[in-house]
Amino acid sequence: MEKESTITVTTPLLPNLDDLNQMLKEIWASKWITNNGQFHQQFEKALCEYLKVPYVSVFTNGTLPLLIALQALGVKGEVITTPYSFVATTHSIWWNGLKPVFVDIDPSNCGIDPDRIEEAITPQTTAILPVHCYGKPCDNKRIQEIADKHGLKVIYDAAHAFGVEEDGKSILEWGDLSTLSFHATKVFNTVEGGALVIHDEQMKRHVDYLKNFGFESEVEVVAPGINGKMDEIRAAIGLLNLQHVDSAIEARHRIAVRYRQALRNVDGIDFFEDMPGVRHNYSYFPIFVHADKYGLTRDQLYFKLQKHNIYGRRYFYPLISTFGDYRQLPSAAPANLPNATRIADEVICLPMHHELTDSDIDRILDIIVD
Ligand SMILES: *Cc1c(COP(=O)(O)O)cnc(C)c1O
Q1: Beta bridge partners of 100
Q2: Which of 128, 221, 237, 329 sits CB 3.0–4.6 Å from 214 for a disulfide?
Q3: Which residue ranges have their beta carbon within 6 Å of ligand 1?
């Protein structure tokens, strides 16, 4: 029998090579390859329009915006966050010399549970760092109410939430700042890249200084900045990918519909339905395996898929709170994080990207719906 081709969890959205070459020729002719060049400026403008937000500052990856958001808002002491995310979320707190405080998640959206936030607040708490996990909006209204009541900043890690809207409004408008990642594995990519979504001009200027060593002019450094700048080549890739990200999201939508149709009648497999009024981006398709009803554990299904050359990912397992230095924190105790601990043992993100074919999906479903 012919070996079955490999199905990966994702594949990058790539621009047309001739279109890119055209833009590379312009960059080569200008010899302006980084430092707020013309494509960088165009890309920030195009992102504001696409995302329906007032200000965007682009970065060379999606972790720097997290680090810089905490700096820009002067966050001190303790930051309340979720253990159910990619490690960069907590690392950004740690790298700023701050203390992460883990709060459990709400199983209905895998975001931080607002009911558990207030009990984690101490006199040292200055900010909340939630994640719109899988691009599903957090309970943003409740989070803001709690933040207002206690005088806390809110920074959203919106790495999964590119283009997600609620009632026609971007969810990136919530909080003080939101961060995006344009890594190759995300719905929208610039190879590596990221952005901060900003609400006012003054903060935009401050963030732009911080990503350029703090330079305000040739001779003036106004803040201890870092180098977070995006170069012209990535900005060009971003401009081109923006033109076809909507069709990629539409393709993902069709795949989500097929997955759901087939899985709706499978005992012991749960998944998310669309939320009313939300424009989803279908960045991930997590399923949750309940071994008692399904008959296989999550890991048994995960490795069974791998045996057939189908590579899902266990996002997010293990929890961030189980890693290295974080494990010692009192808030990292599994008893404090029962939902996150359980869900991390149930989840598989199924392959989800714009190039999956009907026969790929048949192959995946044949194994799950056995
Ligand atoms: C991808 C991701 C990041 C980091 O982005 P990079 O662009 O890889 O640096 C941060 N947080 C979450 C939740 C992510 O998924």
Answers
A1: 79
A2: 221
A3: 61-63, 85-86, 88-89, 131, 157, 159-160, 181, 183, 194
